[in-house]
Amino acid sequence: MKYRVAVVGATGAVGREILKILAEREFPVEAIAALASPRSVGREVSFGETVVKVANLETFDFSGWDIALFSPGASVSAKYAPIAAKVGCVVIDNTSHFRMDPDVPLVVPEVNPEALKQMKRHIIANPNCSTIQMVVALKPLHDLFALKRVVVATYQAVSGAGKHGMDELFAQTRGSFVNDPPQIECFQKQIAFNCIPQIDRFMEDGSTKEEWKMQVETRKILDPDVQVLATCVRVPVFIGHSEAVVAEFAKPVDLKQAREALRSAPGVMLFDRNEEGGYITPIDCVGENASYVSRLRIDSTVPHGLAFWCVSDNLRKGAALNAVQIAEKMRDLGLLCKKS
Ligand code: A2P
């Protein structure tokens, strides 16, 4: 069976990756629609060997389309995802808008695929990029040792802020060599040669919304009782988020068992050699699918603790790949119906 698939935000960093991954994984596509704002109408994007002309989301009729993968920004999804869902098109939304809606499953296929069966509004949410790679790595450890608390510091690439974020890092880096003053639009301060401890807006308690997302999304996906404290930092890396994760468990931790579980867990690649360079960095993970775990060690400051370094391509597992995997899992579970 083949499906009629719409990609919303098709000209953006994640949208282009979705088109690439759909083709790469040979998702059974009968017809493809590439949608963006009126600014982009008529532009061309690639879907495998095929070139697709971009159409206007505002005037697009979702009737007869089976599935839509959205990544146009939260306010645009808020308006158009329900329009698509209303005519029976299943929406997989990559923005933050629907994630905490109790009627919308928030899914990482390796972690909580069963949540897909709870879909009530024809909308499935794709979690935040920094949450996805962390819960994929934590899931096998949680199953073994019962996770209680996580403290995480992130080092997040500029592509998490879309193509404008990548352009800003490029322009500022280039500008620094020709004495151009840095233009600051996307981020709060200069990002080239810098680190910015703010992603998204501030909340009342002094945390940022990105940090709050890591907390509430981890609970919704993995376990409502897990405590999470995150510090999210934007760094001058184009692609690939890194995280220093410290996890505390209810049961005694065995390092050998932890390694074995991570080695056999779906979506995880353990690359951990106690030697110079024996770990994965963002540059190494670009274009790859896994959540990479390195530097795994016991945290002896608490009774049952583990610390590790986790890296993943934020545009793939952190966004586009996870969305496509959700579509694949829905098809496998018989939750994707063909309408025509
Ligand atoms: P456009 O290129 O026409 O602005 P990124 O996150 O990389 O910046 O990409 C955002 C994506 O969302 C782009 O494809 C962008 O299209 C699309 N987008 C932004 N605003 C709208 C809108 N109002 N309607 C439809 N698509 C939009």
How would the blueprint of this fold be written?
Blueprint (H helix, E strand, L loop, with lengths): L2 E6 L4 H12 L4 E8 L7 E4 L2 E7 L10 E4 L3 H13 L3 E4 L29 E3 L3 H17 L1 E10 L6 H15 L31 H13 L5 E8 L6 E9 L5 H10 L3 E3 L11 H4 L5 E9 L5 E8 L3 H17 L8
Parallel strand pairs: 1-2, 1-5, 2-4, 5-6, 6-7, 8-9, 11-12
Antiparallel strand pairs: 3-4, 8-10, 10-13, 12-13
Helix pairs in contact: 1-8, 3-5, 3-6, 3-8
Model description:
Helix 3 crosses helix 5 and helix 3 packs across helix 6. This protein folds into two domains: 139 residues, Rossmann fold; 185 residues, Dihydrodipicolinate Reductase, domain 2 (2-Layer Sandwich). The mean pLDDT is 97. The longest helix is centred in the middle third of the chain and has 17 residues. The termini are close together. The chain is globular and about 60 Å long. The protein has eight helices and 13 strands. Helix 1 links the parallel strand 1 and strand 2. Helices cover 30% and strands 24% of the residues. It has 340 residues and is α/β, with parallel strands linked by helices. The protein has a seven-stranded mixed β-sheet with strand order 3-4-2-1-5-6-7, sandwiched between helices. A six-stranded mixed β-sheet has the order 9-8-10-13-12-11. The protein binds adenosine-2'-5'-diphosphate.
List keywords for this structure.
single chain; 340 residues; alpha/beta; Rossmann fold; Dihydrodipicolinate Reductase, domain 2; seven-stranded mixed beta sheet; 8 helices; 30% helix; binds adenosine-2'-5'-diphosphate
